[in-house]
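Lab notebook, design round three. We kept the backbone fixed and only want residue identities now. Task for the bench partner: fill in a sequence for the structure below.
Input structure tokens:
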């Protein structure tokens, strides 16, 4: 399970279409370096309720990381 969550994070970090739905209003909680925490398909607006990327990018990206 946590491996899957880690994969979601890695995919989101590599994804050019990553679009966080809940986090973009809280401006800059992140100041030092690359904040990988919170960046995940799980909070991407393209991720649907069936845990499927509506842009079909997940599989492509996961094969490249
Ligand atoms: S859900 Fe899709 S668009 Fe969103 S970060 Fe994951 S792969 Fe990218």
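Proposed sequence:
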């Amino acid at each position: 399970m946590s491996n899957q969550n880690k994969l979601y994070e890695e995919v989101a970090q590599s994804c050019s279409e990553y679009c966080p739905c809940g986090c973009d209003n809280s401006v800059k909680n992140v100041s030092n370096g690359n904040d990988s925490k919170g960046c995940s398909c799980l909070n991407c607006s393209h991720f649907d309720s069936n845990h499927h990327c509506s842009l079909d990018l997940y599989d492509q990206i996961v094969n490249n990381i």
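Keep this in mind before ordering anything: The pocket of iron/sulfur cluster is lined by residues 11-12, 15, 17-18, 41, 44, 46-47, 53, 55, 57-58, 61 (CB under 6 Å).
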